[in-house]
Amino acid sequence: MIPKTDIDLVSLKIKTQPSTTYYLDQENKRIRGSVDGLEAMKQAIYLILNAERYAHLIYSWNYGVELRDLIGEPKEYAYPEIKRCITEALLQDDRIAAVDDFIFETHGEKVHVSFLIHTIFGEIDWEVKTDV
Fold it and tell me: What is the pTM of this model?
């Protein structure tokens, strides 16, 4: 038996939840009020890229980035993997539409990666430094 309803399912609209969150003042290690929009997005990106995936039970397995396993790998292998891992981690957030314009620079054992993140609030330039 199929349930019957008077609701027109075609006209239903998905309501986007607000992105308001607590503002984490990283310099002073305090919570200072709340932020929304692009600033909340920057904070979410920071948290995603600084949590190693599968390392913390408090987070879902879809949260965080997998860069730890790339330490010691050759650059020819690590660069595309860094790009894939960062893109995959950020696209889990439905407010992020795309990640592109990756630029890699090597400084000894460190890799400096800069890229552009396209969000529903605007574009954000971001940088990550990691060991290879």
Answer: 0.82
